[in-house]
Amino acid sequence: MIYLTTKESSPRLEYVLEFIFSHVWQEEIKFLKSNEIEKTFHPCIFYGFPAVTENNNLKINIPSSGILYEKGVRTQEIKVVKDSITDLPYFFETDNKEDYDFPFDLFALIFYLLSRYEEYLPAEKDQYGRYVSTNSISVKNEFVQIPIIDQWLLVFKQKIENITGKPIGVKQKFSLFPTIDIDIVWAYAHKGLSMWKGILKDIVLAKFTAISFRYKSYINPDSDPFFTFDYLENKLHNCRNNTIWFILYSKNPDSKDVNHNRSLTSFDDWLKKFTVKKSVGIHPSFQSHSSLSTLMEEKNSLEASIHQKLEKSRQHYILFSMPETYKNLIKAGIKEDYSMGFPEQIGYRAGTGFSFFWYDLHTEEQTELMVHPFQIMDVTMKKYKNWTPEQAITEIKNIMDMARKASSPVRFIWHNSSFYSGNGWNNWEKVFETIITEGNKQM
Fold this sequence. Notes:
443 residues, alpha/beta, five-stranded parallel sheet, 14 helices, 15 strands
């Protein structure tokens, strides 16, 4: 049992405390009034005012910046400072550091990052309407690849254990969670007459590798360069219970939503067979981003096809807007979202590898939508960063090492199509396999 006292509670403060104590640490916390703490010798956290007790060795003082007692959003004056002891960045610094055990409002920092406060503010959007990562405090101040919340929680936990004299909460450990996006099952197989049109086009463009793959796929669809599912399942065997497969199921496929037509019998047959005894989620189409009815249609149709209830999702193109996308997901019956990451940056969009409930800043309440952040994506490394496989492997190892030190989980996104040399994915299977290998390592 951990005790905390503050002059006033709020939905934002309660949200942060639930994340820390209930969700991450699985430790019970109890609020005490200031007059109650004077009568007890229990170790206690004082939030928002320095402790004045006869037993000062059993307290931790954390300052308040005030943001947890506000409503709505406003532009915050944020200065990022590097701590001289831990070398970790922080913000919401206090003026009178000598009165506190942290030189900043730890709970405010956590709330700001988890709630995605900055994404509610006016900001530049990219060509698809996505929040641009360079707007983010973590990218501007070069700590996006640090699980800043998780690392500060380790510091916080150690301070508590120092005054209690015993371990608190469950022991966290690094773990790997693979997620696979299936935008399209076959590159060339089951295309009918369009395959021959494609061959003629490839002849004109002298794409001889593509011609070879097209022909092989016509003879044997299982040899199609996108049909990599046996390979994926083999490599993911040891973490198959942690693996989720997200399926794009647009009603009207186009250049952005490139899934097969639902009327394609081979697609429907494969889908029914493949999804048996697997954890499956919907991959809401680009078209569904601004349309709840389209999202509902896709989810209901895929559920009917595979005879599974779908409660997990990840946005196609990582296209989401705060808070509209999450509100639509909740209305559609989605309980878990896996879109929390920057498409153009590897690292920590929300400052943590741990899952958390989404807090709606418009209604000022914690919702039932669980957000599972990802840190690594194949498309980020190859298409946005333009890294070679060797560069990608180096960066992946850095992320994994950081996560292990913070006892923080890592989620990654890969596509079944991201192995095809004809599309420039030469040697990227080495990158994929490195993630799996590194994920099996512990401290």
